[in-house]
């Protein structure tokens, strides 16, 4: 850890609170596929373009797995600079466990439990992200961003869970 001490500096409190526009824009862009795939599934766009009925729903679940893996992996970055060895180990573990649990969804569950588990994973990751920001392991703006993005994703997945038929194309 000594070799990294020169890289550390006290963060400017304004940097910690001011959300970068790129993070906000890319975060919202990451939510759009959830909405578009849900709409495609609701209006059966998959069948209209020659895909198996339920494919859009399957793609929604697969996209959710990818994003849950990405969000889980953020903990790896937080762990690398965390001074507390116990919390560092917890972050490393969470960064690996989140994608593993998400990846298991299509293997061990079927509709509607796949969407239900995705919702649960996103809620747990969102809560964890807010706690990381509150404890100083992530910038303060990150907790705000993740609260908004998690709320949007969970709301979309709840709509999908409530509206979509259970059969899928995969």
Automatic annotation (TrEMBL):
Domain of life: Bacteria
Record-linked Pfam families: DUF3429
Transmembrane regions: 21-43, 59-78, 90-109, 115-133, 145-166
Entry keyword set: Membrane, Transmembrane, Transmembrane helix
Nucleotidyltransferase among keywords: no
Name this polypeptide is given: DUF3429 domain-containing protein
Taxonomic path: Bacteria, Pseudomonadati, Pseudomonadota, Alphaproteobacteria, Hyphomicrobiales
């Amino acid at each position: 850890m000594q070799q990294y001490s020169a890289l550390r500096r006290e963060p400017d409190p304004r940097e910690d609170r001011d959300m970068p526009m790129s993070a906000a824009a890319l975060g919202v862009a990451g939510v759009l596929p959830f909405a578009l795939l849900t709409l495609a599934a609701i209006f059966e766009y998959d069948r209209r373009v020659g895909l198996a009925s339920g494919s859009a729903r399957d793609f929604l679940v697969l996209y959710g797995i990818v994003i849950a893996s990405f969000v889980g992996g953020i903990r790896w970055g937080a762990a690398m600079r965390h001074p507390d060895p116990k919390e560092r180990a917890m972050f490393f573990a969470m960064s690996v466990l989140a994608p593993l649990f998400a990846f298991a969804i299509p293997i061990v569950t079927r509709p509607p439990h796949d969407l239900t588990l995705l919702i649960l994973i996103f809620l747990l990751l969102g809560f964890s992200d807010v706690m990381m920001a509150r404890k100083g392991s992530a910038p303060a703006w990150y907790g705000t961003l993740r609260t908004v993005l998690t709320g949007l994703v969970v709301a979309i997945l709840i709509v999908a869970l409530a509206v979509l038929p259970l059969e899928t194309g995969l």
